[in-house]
Amino acid sequence: MPEILEEKEDTSVDDSMEDSNIQSSVNFSLFKHPMKDWEIVAIPILAITVAELLLYMGKQEAGILLHVMIPLGLAISTMWMRESNVTFCLEALALLPVLRLVNISMPVFLPTRLYLYIFIYAPLIIPVFFIMRHQRIALKEIGVTLDNLYLYIPIALVVGYMIGLGEFSIIHPGSLIPDTSALSMLKISFVMLFFVGLVEELIFRSLLQTRLEASFGMVKGLLISGLLFGMMHSGYGEAYELLMTGFAGLLIGYMFQRTRSLPLIAITHGFVNIFLFGLIPLLGTGLGIF
């Protein structure tokens, strides 16, 4: 949800086979302590969480500084690790501080705030593309499929409305469009579906969740990516919004696990924002129907 301020080898891991006590697969040590995989990944996750909490508490300079340091630290540390699912996780995690920094640093120079999201999310396609290329991720692995899309659209519509309604009850945003005319609806749908929804789902689900699943299992991968998704909404300054978006991240992540359909979750995410920042503020929670 927006806020302004060659064939790849199968790397899936069964939950029953994961063991957090196994020594790191990347042979990485800190102060002569051989680190386990979960310890390595926990460090940037903790750092991202602290940075977002600093922003939540209004300590913007400290939060921004920490977000700047995280991708730099990850870039340096991965130089000493051999390529593995853990380093793939770290590369995906590095996108989260980049997302936050681009969001914060983007100046408001457009008369229509809606268009600002294009300039925030379009640049993020570049690092996403290079990570996919470096990790040799097949399109099917990130969920690029049109299978059963005609069945998924009604599901996305209902889930999007329910999440949007829940968020609206917490943050009460204004509308990003002046009315519900066909042109206004086309504009907000284009931005929210093809920029905000698609890019965020590529980052949180197609990259981060699948990398975490491969390293730590389906359940832990879902929980970590979903809760990080919620934490990345700290800019609203509302504790209930963190809980709501954390729940939304878990729900959408579960939908992705069950279907492995990027179109489904991108459309669901897009509908959330269309309702939250367009239809509900203009028409009310009942959308003028009831």
What would a concise description of this structure say?
It contains eleven helices and two strands. The protein has helices at about 35-55, 60-80, 85-95, 95-105, 115-120, 125-135, 150-170, 180-215, 220-230, 240-260, 260-285, and strands at about 30, 35. The protein has a two-stranded antiparallel sheet.
Description:
With 290 residues, the chain is an all-alpha fold. It has one domain. The chain is 66% helix and 1% strand. Strands 1-2 form a two-stranded antiparallel sheet. The protein starts with 28 loop residues before the first strand and ends in a 7-residue tail after the last helix.
Strands, total number: 2
* Derived structural class: mainly alpha
Order of helices and strands: EEHHHHHHHHHHH
Helix content, binned percent: 55-70%
Assess the beta-strand content as a share of residues.
under 5%
Helical stretch count?
11
Shape: globular
Low-pLDDT runs: 6-24
Distance between the termini: 26 Å
Strand arrangement within the widest β-sheet reads 1-2
Please give the largest β-sheet: 2 strands, antiparallel
Number of domains: 1
Radius of gyration: 19 Å
Mean pLDDT: 88
